[in-house]
Amino acid sequence: MPAAACTIRAVTDYDATIFTPVDLVQVSLDVYTDAYRVTGKAMTRFARVADIANQAANTHLHVDEATITEYADPKATVGAMQALVNMDVALLVITAESEAPQRPEMRIPKRSVRAQVGVPPFRLTGMVHVPPGSRPADGVLNATDRFLTMTEATIACAEHPELDRTATAIAFQRARAHLILVADDENPDQLLADVLDDATAERWLHAAEPEQL
Question: What's the predicted TM-score (pTM) here?
Fold first, then answer.
């Protein structure tokens, strides 16, 4: 009986650790649509940017202390105590380092591959993360999350070069990507996008109809 009692106490302690609620913390972030940049703060229980984007409570993300900038008129900024950003039209989400604790149950082992993603008006270059044993393209296409993580990211925007920047990690909406080019595992140091010069890549992002190459 004493041994059984010890076992019950051990299981109880273990369960309590797993289901301990994670407190909300405030994190600074930027949300980019195809026309607006919204900068502000959001409350979250998650530390990783893709988790924050994917686990938005409803169709719109609440951004507090918001500054809204329109790409077409960057000098005309609007401030608001709170803005609601439609996540269906969000292209990119970039966060500062969150103080929310990492949640091991949210982690899935993955490997990194180089990629270039066309999410007009942005061109993204960096590392995407796919399950071990999968082909890079399959790993990206078969992912269940709406927003995918890119690390070591470089963001370029030909129409609005003032938006160019780098970031440790970003989340991009896969369904809004016009092009996804990933590294070839047989030659991992060469990005498939390297076969395209910059001018051709930009025409792909902005052409009304596909060009015949």
Answer: 0.73
Cα separation, 94 vs 172, in Å, equals: 9
Q: Would you say 61 and 18 are in contact if contact means Cβ atoms under 8 Å apart?
A: no
CA separation for the pair 53, 163 (Å, rounded) = 20
How far apart, in Å, do the first and last CA atoms of the chain sit?
78
pLDDT tens-digit readout, 72-82: 998 889 999 99
Q: d(Cα 185, Cα 197) in Å, to the nearest integer?
A: 21
Residues 6+ apart with CB under 8 A from 108: 131
Is 25 buried (19+), middle (13-18) or exposed (0-12) by CB count in 10 A?
A: middle
Residues 6+ apart with CB under 8 A from 16: none
Distance of CA 4 to the CA centre of its chain: 47
Q: What does the block give as tokens for 61?
A: 């993300």
